[in-house]
Amino acid sequence: MPTYDLIVKNADIVTASDRYRGDIGINDGKISVIAASLDASQAQQVIDANGRMVTPGGVDAHCHLDQPSTDGSQSADDFISGTRSAACGGTTTVIPFAMQFKGQSLQDAVADYHQRAAGKACIDYAFHLIITDANPATIAELPALVSQGYTSFKIYMTYETLKLSDLHILEVLDTARQLGAIAMIHAENDDCISWLTQRLKKQGKTAPRYHALAHSPIGEREATHRAISLAELVDVPILLVHVSSRAAIEQIYWARGQGMNIFSETCPQYLFLTAEDLGIDDSFHGAKCICSPPPRDSDSQNAVWDALANGTFTIFSSDHCPFNNDATGKKLHGENASFDLVPNGIAGLETRLPLLMSEGVLQQRISAQRFVDLTATAPAKLYGLYPQKGTIAPGSDADLVIWDTHIRQVISNEMLHSNADHTAYEGKEVQAWPAITLSHGIAVWRDQQFLGEQGNGRFIARAVPFPSAG
Ligand code: URP
Ligand code: ZN
Ligand code: ZN
What we know:
Layout: E1 4-14, E2 19-27, E3 30-35, E4 43-48, E5 53-56, E6 58-63, H1 79-88, E7 91-99, H2 106-117, E8 124-125, E9 128-130, H3 136-147, E10 152-156, H4 166-179, E11 182-186, H5 190-202, H6 210-214, H7 217-234, E12 238-240, H8 246-257, E13 262-266, H9 269-272, H10 298-309, E14 315-316, H11 352-362, H12 368-382, E15 400-404, E16 409-410, E17 429-430, E18 433-439, E19 442-446, E20 449-450
Parallel strand pairs: 1-4, 1-5, 6-7, 7-8, 7-9, 9-10, 10-11, 11-12, 12-13, 13-14
Antiparallel strand pairs: 1-2, 2-3, 5-15, 15-18, 16-17, 18-19, 19-20
Helix pairs in contact: 3-4, 4-7, 7-8
Bound molecules: N-(aminocarbonyl)-beta-alanine and zinc ion (2 copies).
């Protein structure tokens, strides 16, 4: 009778703190032992990592799957295609959103998203809530939802149908404080965006590239500072999502210097795209890269790299929010719709880890340990999944990535596994890609093949990140 279901031998094991050679023994989907050497004859199955890097499976803490939009546009990915593409890119846990429509109860929103995911997800998943209607009845629902494992709430400072007033933000933050939960804030000044949009449109400037001007870094900076101030007033930690600009990073850096517990996230689009990807002329092509906040300039790209390396950013997520380039998505309002009518969001679940491994770790901008922290350990800790997820340790789920780091892979949408009809990274070369992704000790990606099964992903009720708060 073999002692192990699986041994991963000769692994270059990387955690958020360490890097060392070892063998990993796996039983019943969990890591049971890590040792300098395990006896291969004691395993039902052996994978020889041959000295390749082995990291925890990625935790993508910001993605939108099968999320209906208030404008009627349709997400290109449901829980089958979204989790499939995640697995093929080395991500083994996703935290998409259960979004409340105004007037809807949060429990109804959660029930709806469970239906969307059940029997479909091929990797594990949890849900953040999106609170769009912070009325007293919604606030009263939160204690029960937090105890059911929905321990983080996203709130918006912009988008007409989603945004909360400062008063409502304060109420949500105060509730998060009492419950030990965390609020994730989309920080852009809505009135700045409206004013700039109107001005640009009056001048006939409606092409996709003007989206980047309408969503000015000044508006992001102001809202970031305001979110920090509201959190300071309530005395509660917050996480600022998808931070894009040097101006916003400076606010976060300042707040952390004051001793405030401000966490922050950035995403691949702010490292690998610039406003020029929205177009250098008036063609509609750049609509593919419309997201909010938009990609910025090379100065902000450098600031984002620095903040990843120096610890200012806590996590690195995809903000996967795919829309096809057709009438269900980017062309919802026609081939030449004004930029403000184009659905916001780009695909990124599958390319998140290869891009950062390749351009971050292999180009020596960040260490392999920092890579693990940003993409797996820190999101698992922040969102109450650790140590089940986000690390390589006895007792943790055997969610692992064995890396190829000596390849030349030109990204094309054809090789990806999302249902999106394009990728913003078409033609970009990377030197790294997962050779094998294991979810609960079972290969879901190997030999360039998706091997996962829909329905194998499990819902995870999350712990509160700040249990002693309140
Ligand atoms: O443009 C983006 N980021 N779309 C996704 C929705 C959001 O605000 O995260
Ligand atoms: Zn957002
Ligand atoms: Zn998002």
